[in-house]
Amino acid sequence: MRRKRVIVLAVALAFAGAACKRRSSSNSTALRSVVLMSDPHSAGQLLSGFHDVEAGAWRWTERTFSIRLARPRGAEQKGAMLSVKLTVPPVTIDKLKSVQLSASVNGTTTDAETYSAPGDYVYRRELPPGALATDPVRVNFTLDKAIPPGNPDVRQLGIVVLAIGLEPR
Length: 169
Known about the structure:
CATH architecture: Sandwich
Number of domains: 1
Radius of gyration: 15 Å
Order of helices and strands: HEEEEEHEHEEEEEE
Shape: globular
Number of strands: 12
Oligomer: single chain
């Protein structure tokens, strides 16, 4: 439990410096380019496929999940780095053996990554400027499979996410 708290704190500190708060021209609420799952102010940016925050720090996802992020300054010319801090829980590997994550941003699909062991990971992919033409940016994530609802948990479960962000290049 202590190790998990240290990891969560490290993630929060790492993203805190990069987090960008600003107003989107299409929305009057402050959008962030980096969203910590623990931040209640960012919950409105989670569009679909996220379960409630747990342990005050992370959220389970479903097989597909989407988020809206503010575009980092200059990303429409230079591109950006998509980053997901995640955990693949032992139960996911026990039941599914492996899980594959990919993302899509405005028609640009990122390379998938396969996780076949439980643990903490960072999914990082470069996004070209063309994928970041709109502000805000909608990012759609897909897992190749998820744990179906059952007993005792009635939710579809994929991976655990701590933070998702777009970082300027």
